[in-house]
Amino acid sequence: MTVTVSDRKDFTLSALQRVALHAEGFEFSRRALRQIDAWHREFSRYVAENSQRFIYGVTSGYGPKASTRIAPEKNLHHEMPFIGFSFSDEHFPDSHVRAMFFSMAAMVINGAPALSSRQASAITRALKGPMPSIPSSGITSPGEMMVLFYLLRVLPELTSELACSHCNGAVGSVAIAGLRALAARRRIQLAEQIFALSADAIQCPMEHFHPGLKPLWGDRYEGESLDSLGYWLRGAKRTGRRSYQAPVSYRILPRVLGQARRAVHALERAAEQSLQGLTTNPTYVASSHGVGQKTLSNAGFHETLSPQALDNVMATWTDLASIAHRHANKLHRGAVSNLPDRLRRDEGPSTTYIEYVAGDIEDEMRRLAQPSLLSPADPGASDQDDVNSPGLIACRMEARVAHLFDRVLTLTAVTASQALFVTDRRPPKNLARLVSTIRRHFPVVESVRDLGVDAQALSSVFTQHCETGEVLK
Amino acid sequence: MKVTLNTRRDFSLENLRKVALQDGRPVIGRNALRAMKQARTSFMQMLDSDRSQFIYGTTSGPGQRASEPIPAKAQKQQAQEMRRVPAGGGFSTSFVPERVVRMILFARLANYIEGNAKTRPIEAQRITQLFDDPMPKLPLSGQVGAGEILPLFHVLHGIRDADVEEAEPMARINGSPVSAGMLADAALTSAARLSIAEKVFALSAHSYGAPLEYVDKALLEYWQARGEHRSITNLNRWLYRASKPLTEHQPPCSFRIMPRVLGAAHEAVLSAQECAEISLSSVTDNPVYLLPGPDNPQGLAISTGGYHNAQATPAIDTINARFADLCTLADRQTMRLHSDAHLPTNLAPPGAKHWGTALLSFVQVGYGEEARHAAQRTFLPPSEGGGIAGQNDVASATTLSYQKHSKSGICLDSALALLAASASQAYYATQRRAPPKLRAFLDEVRCYVKPVRSRSGRNLGRELGRLRAHFEHLVVETM
Fold first, then answer.
1. Inter-chain contacts counted by CB atoms under 8 A, chains A and B
2. Touching check for A437 and chain B: CB below 8 Å?
3. CA–CA distance, B219 with A14 (Å, rounded to integer)
4. Which of B408, B407, B410, B413 is closest to B448 using CA atoms?
5. Disulfide engineering: A255 pairs with which of A211, A315, B174, B310, CB 3.0-4.6 Å?
6. Is the pTM of this model over 0.95?
7. How far apart are CA A119 and CA B8, in angstroms?
């Protein structure tokens, strides 16, 4: 299938998923290309009539030479270091680079860079691959030029022909934030299943997740988490459960998961709004906007909303990891769980000691999940470029924290699976598939084996599911 | 001024302002009295129908004794033994502002007002009586524990000694009114702080003298976020009819990104306000009483985690992060104002000492660093301190994020004072005038820090400190 776009509203997270993750085709509609050309012609006339006017990068130099006048025709071939400077042990996967070209296309359809249809079609062509190899760190800068250096290598038309801008915007961070949002939605759904399994394993009184709490709390997201927990626990045995309340780490689940849902929703909203509202520096405002033709030097390159949303998402993963770790501990502690101590059957081997693994991961998450604040450091040798953009590093940190979260979830999942096993219980029917996945990769423990290897395998399955949407098997 | 409370809808930010800032006195309305009375009756019927059912803290012991059933005959006696809210255990050199304690007390009543606290109406009235006394002192530190019993001990210890019945002592100290109050205060003061910040940044942007295309309203055609709409609209209001720029080329990033950074700050504050409104009117008791309905003719008392407000800490942390960013912008802009070629070096006016006001740029560094420290994330505390017998194993961290917020606010006010004084100096050194709508504000700034020709006879630190205090005063006055 091909994703055909006509205006900016077509740039949804769902379309991003199809183009970036599923590598489906992409094209501008004919109507879109006609509009793009009309804006480009209008902009060309505007430059001809306003050659004395400051238009950054069109009638002026770039970066530190912003105050230097340059004739538009000379600017097309002036020196720009489109060769790449960054280096890293890792590179962005192709899906991320495709997402970047997709977000470039979103900017083009806004008319902000005033590209021609020929230039726009170059982006369509780039999406067919192969993707340029872009280091995934060493790329933070004012705006996102360090990433653009790589993207523009395969788009010579953008810099050799007149345009208001060669897409000098937040195309990298907005693209990846969109992918992070898609993964976050899947991750919270997986987390809710695992927490529900843990709640059933410790035989939480069902009243902790009573739907009657929804109107009392009055919060949409906490209501959703109550519904979700209720769904996963549907059919759970109601008799023989704990006769008194479970530890706080269980009772607060609906509220903490509700906060996680709020954070994920905010990321989805920010990512889609940013994708549809991408501007470049400078931005061309066409006559069709009704405010007079003009070019605007602005900060389209500095994305602030998705980094803020990503910060909240990774903080929520960290808090949930902290709770998941407590669950793994409590399930193993017979005096608290009312289950066989250390989940051992007849003094045989069990999962115990695997709960210790979470501490290291959790501490790493806490260190990584700090907010993406603006750095006060001078980024480089230019007074113009005096503040770095936080978008790309926020995406990288959230991805790393999310990956670690999957590992902690794995530890809780295998512990809950073991708890059901040692007490000869079956999971509620809606959780049966999850338990089957868990046990396929991490069989219940009946003899001594290297549990770390199995936990790694299960964790990878969880991560693959969250990051790509691959069905849990 | 009386603020009559009848339903949870009355727990609005507007009523909170009246109670916290305008000396409003909450009064329990007739409908609420009736609702509480009915709920208490049905709750007691439910309790009497089976005194062996688990109702946390009523038919069981409290806290780590949750698994311990209390015999029917001893249940009233257990309540009597808890008739006094203990004095708090926290201590600190600084205290939560009195207005916030009032907010917490106001929020405390939400559990009661429709009967979900399952108490007699007199219990709610006892809480309203606390408004007639001097507000209790709530230490800012030592309040991080499961639920909010630690701060509530301090706030409610003053409830007069009187007869209590089953379930009533637990209702006093369970729930999350502290989070609701602190979050509301952070949201309201931050909105007021952002108003000042916008004026200062608008002043700085214009005094720098570069084109202001980066706040052009046409950008709203593209940018859809509500925060950016606010920042661009507000900046345009202040910059209306601004005089022509000194240069024709774009200013450095630290100016151009201003509407976006302010936009993110607005987004943070708007989200905090939404969460505060939800939190204020939430019923968060544990156990909470679900009123009688078709499925439960006598109602239902259920154990929940309502006492853990998970929204407040992230919302406050996000504001703290944006305040740190605004400090960074103020630092960068102060530097540019003092160093860029189109302005007098060090903003020294002709004939004055060459060092001008360069000191201001040096001083910015420390406040920015402090703000970034205060903006470190507040996670669920790893410690299970107090989690004896595995019950109270997760602490609520709202007071911790609020404590950091107090620091963040001071840092931002300080950074803004330094930037405002720098912008004022830039106008003075270039003999330009501020845009019409900012002139009164510039005069206000100059009341505290006059333009500098010479530093002899001046104590700039003291002057700037007074300007900062003035900003802080404005925050509380306009919140």
1. 275
2. no
3. 26
4. B413
5. B310
6. yes
7. 58
| Burial track A118-127 (b if 16+ CB lie within 10 A, e otherwise) | ebbbbbbebb
- The whole-chain average pLDDT of chain B stands at 96
A42 touches B at CB < 8 Å: no
- Strands, E assignment, A77-120: none
- Residue B459 distance to chain A (closest CA, Å): 27
What pLDDT score was predicted for residue A238? 86
Half-sphere exposure of B62 (CA within 13 A, CB side): 20
> Considering only residues 438 to 467 of chain B, which have any Cβ-Cβ distance to chain A shorter than 8 Å?
none
Tell me how far apart the 2 most distant CA atoms of chain B are, in Å.
91
Among B464, B471, B437, B433, residue whose Cα is nearest residue B448: B464
Residue B362: what residue type? F
In DSSP terms, A400 is beta-bridged to none
CB A202 within 8 A of CB A339: yes
B393, A248 contact by CB (below 8 A): yes
Token pair 């007079």 in the structure block, residue: A292
The whole-number pLDDT of residue B352 equals 84
| Rounded-to-5 percentages of helix, strand, coil across chain A | 60, 5, 35
**Cβ separation of B321 and A308 shorter than 8 Å?**
yes
- Residues of B in Cβ contact (< 8 Å) with A208: 302-305
- C-alpha–C-alpha distance, residues A40 and A34, integer Å: 10
The question of ipTM being above 0.85 is answered as: yes
Q: Which residues pair with B3 in a beta bridge?
A: B26
Q: B19 with B106: CB under 8 angstroms?
A: yes
Judged by DSSP in three states, B134 sits in coil
Taking only the tens place, the pLDDT of each residue in B295-342 is: 899 999 999 999 999 999 999 999 999 999 999 999 999 999 999 999
A368 closest CA partner among A391, A329, A395: A395
Please give the helix or strand (H or E) that residue A27 lies within, else none.
strand A25-28
- Within 10 A of B165 (CB to CB), how many other CB atoms are there? 18
For residues B178 and B148, is the Cβ–Cβ distance under 8 A? yes
Pull the structure tokens for residue B146: 């499961």
Question: Distances in Å between the alpha carbon of A178 and those of A18, A174, A396, B287?
Answer: 12, 6, 13, 41
Q: Which two tokens stand for residue B122?
A: 């007199």
Determine contact: B300 vs chain A, CB below 8 A. Answer: yes
Of all residues in chain A, the one with the smallest CA distance to B262 is: A304
Q: Is the dihedral of CA A247, A250, A255, A259 positive or negative?
A: positive
Nearest CB to B219 within list A296, A362, A383: A296
Cα–Cα separations (whole angstroms), residue A413 to A237, A324, A436, A449, B133: 19, 9, 11, 18, 52
User: In this complex, is the C-beta atom of A336 within 8 Å of any C-beta atom belonging to chain B?
Assistant: yes
Task: Quickly tell me which residue has 């996680």 as its tokens.
Answer: A260
**DSSP-assigned beta bridge partners for residue B300:** B290
Q: Does A316 touch chain B (CB under 8 A)?
A: yes
Read off the pLDDT of residues A276-288 as tens digits, 9 standing for 90 and up: 999 999 999 999 9
Write out the two tokens for B274.
Answer: 């939404």
Residue of B nearest to A363 (CA): B382
Residue-wise pLDDT for B432-464, tens only, equals 999 999 999 999 999 999 999 988 889 999 999
B218 with A387: Cβ contact below 8 A: no
Residue A371 has its nearest CB partner, among B288, B377, B387, at B377
d(CA B61, CA A139): 57
Closest CA to A181 of A265, A107, A260, A99: A265
Which residue in this structure is represented by tokens 């927490």?
A195
- What distance lies between CA B271 and its chain's CA centroid? 12
Which two tokens mark B202?
């608008």
Q: Which parts of B114-206 are beta strand (E)?
A: none
Tell me which DSSP letter residue A442 carries. Answer: S
